[in-house]
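Box 3.1. Reading complex inputs
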Amino acid sequence: GESVGLHLPTLSVQEGDNSIINCAYSNSASDYFIWYKQESGKGPQFIIDIRSNMDKRQGQRVTVLLNKTVKHLSLQIAATQPGDSAVYFCAESNAGNMLTFGGGTRLMVKP
Amino acid sequence: DSGVTQTPKHLITATGQRVTLRCSPRSGDLSVYWYQQSLDQGLQFLIQYYNGEERAKGNILERFSAQQFPDLHSELNLSSLELGDSALYFCASSVGLGIFNEQFFGPGTRLTVL
């Protein structure tokens, strides 16, 4: 398939466990952050976003945490399922129309 | 299926050549973004159009150009191709102009330059 093929850091978890994917961002002026999921052969898909005036936001089985002090973003996936296997990217924006993407983390879910 | 279509799915060409990638946004979306995903640079924003006008520019080379037509489809033109241009090129669309509008990505075009 059309995989990214990068030498990405990989997180391997057991099905049913919780997953935590981390992202460090560089621009302290960034005020909007998004997590994307990219499955093999597909384009990135929006998962959840958070603005800089928040430190936590929850969706369905996912939670994003933002720590502006250390410029760190994390994505928590509860009860990880085989369908969660993909590459996950964080992206940041600084009051503009542009997104800057992180390098990505490959999540592998073991049955 | 995001509703964004891209053609062709695969493209193989030689150095020095010129290619055109096509994107049809979701029905009703006015904004189109182009991204490049390569092995060494990751996913990078190239350019954005909104209702036919260029609105934001990222790391797009001068050899690359894009446009958005009155029917809102967009084309990305890559010329004087080099080996390093081999990558996945994604188009995304959103309803509005700003970054807070969710972007829906197409399946991508894989460009191989030999």
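In summary: Strands of chain A lie at 10-14, 19-24, 32-38, 45-51, 56-58, 62-67, 72-77, 86-93, 100-101, 105-110.
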